[in-house]
Specification:
The chain has two domains: 113 residues, Serine Threonine Protein Phosphatase 5, Tetratricopeptide repeat; 119 residues. 76% of the residues lie in helices and 0% in strands.
Length: 272
């Protein structure tokens, strides 16, 4: 009986010690997180990443630390610079976002982060897939809708530009009068129309959304290129494109005339 009591007492002490160690680890992880946030806010991203790395080492399931670490890596990544040293930051960020999604598949910040980085790495199809997931979770985010439309534009623009380069013609109607037009239309039109729908909704949610209006102009220009054999429809799309260009210019002028107090304030926290 005494031996059993001693054994149980030892077990309780062991559990208590383990619990204290876990508590100390959590406290230390949060201290590292706070230090990393301060470094991030001052633009010291390498220092911030070291603190966040330590935080996730101390507490592997610390989702917020993984998110801040991913955000910091993404901030260190320079879009448009295709070097191994630069791309590794995007890869590290993607790994952290994936780690978050392993335990929380609906974490929208991670899905948005992956979509953004895939787009910057020119993985347009994967970016499109992830923006669709994010929109399903938050269908009324105008920036998400805008980003999804930009991806659709990028895919269609790449395909249409490649098709036009095959043609030895300078006419505005060179593509719509070509034999290859129906094929490129079947592959690209739905993406363009989806992009236009995204932007229409984004603009309905955020009036005077200049960037959305600018891409509306660009999407209608691409749409015109797919009006196979129909010059009248081509001109109608180009007219729409011009109208959106004018609206964007007017909205931009209005925004530039606004006082600083009218401008949207930027939150003092890491942005995805």
């Amino acid at each position: 009986m005494i031996a059993r009591f001693v054994l149980m007492a030892g077990f309780v002490v062991s559990v208590a010690i383990a619990g204290m160690a876990q508590d100390e680890s959590k406290v230390a992880a949060r201290a590292e997180l706070n230090a990393g946030v301060q470094a991030f806010r001052h633009g010291h991203y390498e220092e911030a990443s070291e603190h966040f790395e330590q935080a996730v080492t101390l507490e592997p399931e610390f989702t917020l630390a993984h998110l801040y670490l991913a955000t910091t890596y993404a901030q260190m990544f320079e879009p448009g610079l295709d070097t191994p040293e630069n791309v590794i930051w995007a890869t590290k960020a993607l790994d952290q976002y994936s780690e978050i999604l392993r335990t929380n598949p609906s974490d929208i910040n991670s899905i948005k982060g992956i979509a953004y980085l895939k787009f910057q790495l020119n993985n347009f199809d994967q970016a499109k897939e992830n923006y669709a997931k994010a929109i399903a979770l938050d269908p009324n985010d105008p920036e998400l809708l805008y980003a999804a439309a930009v991806v659709n534009w990028s895919i269609a623009d790449r395909e249409i530009t490649a098709e036009k380069m095959k043609l030895d013609a300078e006419s505005d109607y060179s593509l719509i009068m070509s034999e290859g037009c129906p094929d490129i239309r079947s592959r690209s039109l739905s993406g363009i129309d989806s992009g236009i729908a995204f932007l229409n909704k984004a603009i309905s949610l955020r009036k005077d959304y200049v960037d959305a209006m600018t891409y509306m102009n660009q999407l209608y220009r691409l749409r015109a290129e797919l009006e196979c054999g129909n010059k009248k429809a081509y001109k109608a799309d180009m007219k729409q494109s011009g109208e959106w260009s004018d609206r964007a210019a007017a909205a931009r002028k209005k925004a530039e005339a606004a006082t600083p107090d009218d401008q949207e304030k930027v939150p003092d926290k890491p942005q995805l």
